[in-house]
Amino acid sequence: MNASAAPAITRDAHGESTPAVLERALFTPISVIFAATAVGFALLHLSRVQVPYAVQVVPFAISVLLFGLPHGALDHLVPARLDHRVSVRRSITAVVALYALLGGATAVLWRFDPLAGFAAFIGVTWFHWGQGDLWLDRARGRATGSRADMVLTPLVRGALPMLVPLIAHPADYLSVLRATTGLIDPGAADGAYLLAAPLVRLAGAVVLAALLTVHLLLRHRPGVPLRATIAELAVLLAFFSAVPPVLAVGLYFTFWHAVRHIIRLELIEPDGRSALERGDLLRPLARFLRDALPVTLCALVLLGVVALSVRSAGLGTYLLLIAALTTPHAAVVTWMDRHRGRAPTPEASSSSAGQATSLRR
Fold it and tell me: What pTM did the predictor assign?
């Protein structure tokens, strides 16, 4: 890239933007890797090769410190970064209170009705992962901006990681459900086998096909090609159809959803945006992980508390923690979406950074 030339920018009508270099350096390579993974696992399936469970959980294990769990660790600073009128102290207080309220309510739901807790977890994650992809589509200029598109895109994009695994791998899906709810009540998921019934899965496939069709029809506009949208949807559909659910969801959580959210946060900060516009991915991501480390370590302490309370340290225990954290995190991101286009000026960012520095002192 010519250093003297202004970096190409993809910008939507509301002022949010992503440097075009991110498509070449990050988003497209991840899509290609996911597509190659889908092909590889389809071939393994045809060869009747089973992937050991210990291998499938590796992405979730990695996510504890890399991208996955840390990606929400700076939520307490989001209000101050987006609105210079909000002090860092007020930002931290509000978000900590939000986490205590919604995270606590989620924990109570799981305690008294684990199956309802799991259903709520799937529903919140469906919406939240969908809203993450909607943000990027809008920043890329792919979304229409209509109310229908704002509703349908999260439904479609969230359905791919949340619904397709049930349709394609019902036994694995039920295994995770039972392993997680069983930590609290061994009989909580006794009736969940109905989810794997052929008619239920067929109905899910029909609903998904209808959502995809309407989504693409809404996205069709003169002069705006659908190739990129169709390609990304096809990659994810193939990925979640071919790859075992634990591995697929772990990879998506860590390297798709979490990375996109971290990029969104880094684009708010002048230094982060400047580095990303130059195609420098390592520095902003490393800085984010460094800044997120204290809260990430606090989350690990909570994970230890959960593990001691349920007397287990498996994937189900980790999912219990993620369930409690996802609800308030989704609320913070929803607030971010409502404040789109109100990015702080460099002066406001400097002011927030200065306040944060003074607090650390």
Answer: 0.88
